[in-house]
Task: structure prediction
Amino acid sequence: MARYTGPKNRQSRREGFDLGAQSVGSKAHAQLLKRLNIPPGQHGHRGRRKISDYGLQLREKQKVKRMYGMLERQFRRFFRMAKKWKGNTGDKLMEFLERRLDNVVYRMGLAPTRALARQLVSHGHVNINGKRVTIPSYQVAVDETVSFSQKSLEIPAVKKLLDDKSLVMPEWILRKGPVGKISRLPKREDINEDINEQLIIEFYSR
Result:
């Protein structure tokens, strides 16, 4: 599947927001934080211009789309899925994004970034209820278990995270060792990132 393969920090700097492309605590992440408010390109140091309402909507959509590692066509499809449901479209959109298998692996603390979580899924390292699933956008359902193959547990990045006892698990995920289970659907208040989903709805409703 097509995906962005350019510089990881460029997108974060374009949005002025840490999109989680670098492992927290790494040298690359520290460098990003120093330059986060400087847009990419040769004119970046001139700062950011005041943008229109449409520009705000576009930037918020781009920010969330890039945060979850998706391209426009797939992100728009998730929005259409959310719009068909009764109730708050924004809340449903965020639920669908959080239930992506690559995001669940990331939230479980078994990958330092969503990009690595997506790679682990694509390469067949992740199982759902004991069966291998290689689709990063797979929607994990309540009571489904997410686990790694035994060989995958020897991957250095995964092994290091399994030994980290400081990780705080989201309330909708239960994890014991390398095995996690979705105990309930994620709610909007479970997401700590600074996201304004109403701007995304306004963008697609124009």
